Task: inverse folding
């Protein structure tokens, strides 16, 4: 019998726990955590071109590059149907304009997974595209949001004519 997908997930989680325990036992740093490992890497593995996999996966796994999610927006929060950040196709690149909010550690991240509206003529949930954005790109302003405790874990980001290759 073929194992059910949930059996496979449970087996992988159990193995991951064993590996983490062994890293801790020998005092090793361990694998990186966060959005790069939990969201970006699996998405790139499933949908990325060979070139994207070659360039981006190793720095995620080594912890060299950190990632953040660029999903929420002012006025719509995490309601994806309300996205207003737009990415318009111009030749071989998308041009991004808009704002994101409450992005954890964007001021420390090298890369972001950005949700943008690429098609305004289809039902709202269908016109959204995920783009990988180099946060060092021209046209991006990242502002940490100071919390009551004085720390700044969250940020707001402004995108003005940011070019992202297709």
Result:
């Amino acid at each position: 019998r073929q194992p059910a997908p949930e059996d496979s997930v449970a087996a992988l989680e159990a193995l991951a726990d064993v590996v983490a325990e062994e890293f801790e036992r020998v005092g090793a740093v361990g694998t990186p955590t966060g959005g790069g490992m939990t969201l970006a890497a699996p998405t790139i593995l499933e949908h990325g071109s060979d070139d994207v996999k070659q360039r981006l996966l190793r720095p995620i796994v080594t912890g060299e590059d950190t990632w953040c999610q660029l999903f929420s927006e002012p006025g719509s929060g995490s309601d994806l149907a309300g996205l207003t950040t737009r990415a318009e196709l111009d030749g071989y690149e998308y041009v991004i304009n808009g704002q994101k909010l409450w992005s954890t550690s964007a001021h420390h991240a090298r890369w972001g997974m950005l949700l943008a509206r690429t098609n305004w003529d289809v039902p709202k949930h269908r016109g959204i595209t995920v783009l990988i954005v180099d946060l060092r790109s021209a046209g991006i302003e990242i502002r940490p949001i100071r919390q009551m405790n004085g720390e700044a874990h969250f940020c707001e980001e402004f995108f003005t004519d940011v070019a992202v290759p297709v």
In short: The CA atoms of residues 63 and 77 lie 29 Å apart. DSSP finds three helices and seven strands in the chain.
